[in-house]
Structures are given as C-alpha cells and as structure tokens.
C-alpha cells in the first residue's frame, strides 16, 4: 500500500470540438407557449405619482423651511438645531402658514427666550411662507438619542 505508481502524463496535439445540439424535426403538435395572464400590479405600476405640492415633506417649500432651520446653531453646541433633534415637527398649510414644534436641550437653556423668536424669523423669511408660528414644548423632553448621526459624529459621540 505504501508503494504508489508514478503518474503518467499523456500529451495531445488537439481535442475535437463537442457536437452541437440540433433539432432535426419540429413537432407541430407541441403545446404553444402559455399565455401570460395580465399582471395584477400593471395598473398600479403604470400610475404616475402625484406631484408634491411643496407643503409636505419632500416638497420645495418644506425643504426650504428645513434648510432655514439647519442654518440656526445652538450657541453652546456647534451643531444646528435640526440635526440636534430640537425640531419635533414642521407643518405648512396651503396658504403658506408654517407651524414649527420644537424644544430646547433643557428648560434652563440660556437661549430659551431668544431661540423661538429666531426660528420664527428664519422660517418666516423663507420665500412662500406667509407667517410662521413656533410652539415650544417640553414633552417629550430632549435627550441625546434625538440627535442625528451627523450631529453625534460632529460631537464625537459615534
């Protein structure tokens, strides 16, 4: 069992190509291809999405308000108030009234008196916004989990 035969190597000049598949006869009695049933999602997929009015998320006016909020920075933290998670909601009516619901990091925040006014001014300055209203709420209280990943990265929390 310990004895092994030497490996034999056979050299060849060329290898014949394998034969190609052929259909010698066509069977006319073969069943036709099954007829595809109408796709039940066809109408749904053909429907075009409704254009955004601008007053809901993804619309130009809404995104303009969000961009304005991203320009306002907390004076103690080098991150804008939107990424900090201080903005709880933005509602825009058809007639251009914007209602912003926000909070502050703490009730004793040094900008508690001036920040809502600044938010109201910046949002009111967005073209297409006729008036702005800011509601300062304390429930639910702000915590660091409300910050975006970008804000956490900026503050070294990720």
UniProtKB/TrEMBL annotation:
Signal peptide: none annotated. Gene3D superfamilies: Fe-S cluster assembly (FSCA). InterPro entries: Fe-S_Maturation_MIP18, FSCA_dom_sf, MIP18-like, SUF_FeS_clus_asmbl-assoc. It comes from the Bacteria. Residues 65-134 form the MIP18 family-like domain. Pfam families: FeS_assembly_P. Coiled coil: none annotated. This is SUF system Fe-S cluster assembly protein.
